[in-house]
Amino acid sequence: MNTEVKYFDSTMSGAPSLSGTAGALIGVLDACLVDGFGSVTVDSLVVASNVVTATVSAGHQFAMVGNTGPVIRIAGASPSGLNGDWRVTVTSSTVFTFATSGIGDQTATGTISAKRAPAGFSKAFSGTNKAAYRADDVTGTRLYCRIDDSTTTYARIRGYEAMDNVDTVTSGYGVFPTDAQISGGGYVYKSSAASAATRAWTLFSDGRIIYFFCDAATGAQYVGGFLFGDIDSYQSPDAYNSLLLYSTTASGWSGLYAFNSTFGCVLARSYTQLGGSILSSRYSHGKAAQLGSGYQAYPAPVDNSVHVWPVECWESTTLARGMMPGLWNPLHNASLSQGQVVEDFPQLPGRTLVAQIIYNSGQQAMFDLTGPWR
Prior knowledge:
This protein is mainly beta. It contains 2 helices and 32 strands. The protein has 2 domains: 6-35 and 119-368, no CATH class; 37-116, Beta Barrel (Elongation Factor Tu (Ef-tu), domain 3). It starts with 5 loop residues before the first strand and ends in a 6-residue tail after the last strand.
């Protein structure tokens, strides 16, 4: 089963807290992207007929989302073939299982642990309340996402083609957005209050792109957050199909919801692979002016189901560059609730999608939790 796609949120056991304090965002990103979280001790790991059964007598607190289980990282087991990332099926509060092959029936030995597997990024450079993250997947662009989380209610964000350290771009390589494009922006809105009051958050990733949302102003509006990473480009190879979407003011909303708009969104370079960063927009079903605002009743009267449509990424507003991986546009009257699970769409059989509010309750997105996205 696919283990690339991972989903995290602030309600999960062991999840770090996001607040209006310096360094809080980096704490969340470290846990989700690099380290994983929610580690528990596995009391037994038994292989029988290519199915592994893990027992955690104290309770593991991992949970299914619809029919899709979380990706769990096993460590410390012998045989070593059991170590690694597995998409599991949770059968009870103390037991989960996963399928394997080539390992004989046996009971594993060792000091065995299990945790939510990280998305698959490295912290390439770091400083006090600063970090530059880079995807581990060598098939992607592996460009850098720099976060400066030195302030309280917001962080600063920017993309780099290459870096010498957390504060310096390698000479001769690009930064996105450029100084002219950023116009004082490049923010991640974390919280409306400079305090330790916690904020809800969610993060979706397939190891090459990050979608991060936070309820910065409270009220389940999820106006804060950012997007960084590789779109699914129409051109292959494409070394600069990395996208960055950010807030243009310190307490501003992320512009993911807006179609036909280059508001706070850039690609590292054009498809020509030349020049510097360029503005970018998104499009989907022609009826919708905004993501998750398709004007059709929910559920759809014709077949009593949920209708979704893919989202396309463009260079400026004139040239289609590729698809937004994992992201789907619900074509309804903003009737889905935060975290609502919908499964087995006609066009996506066997997939689990979850609804994400992206701009108050009026606009929503849906994310595929099953994968693969590409």
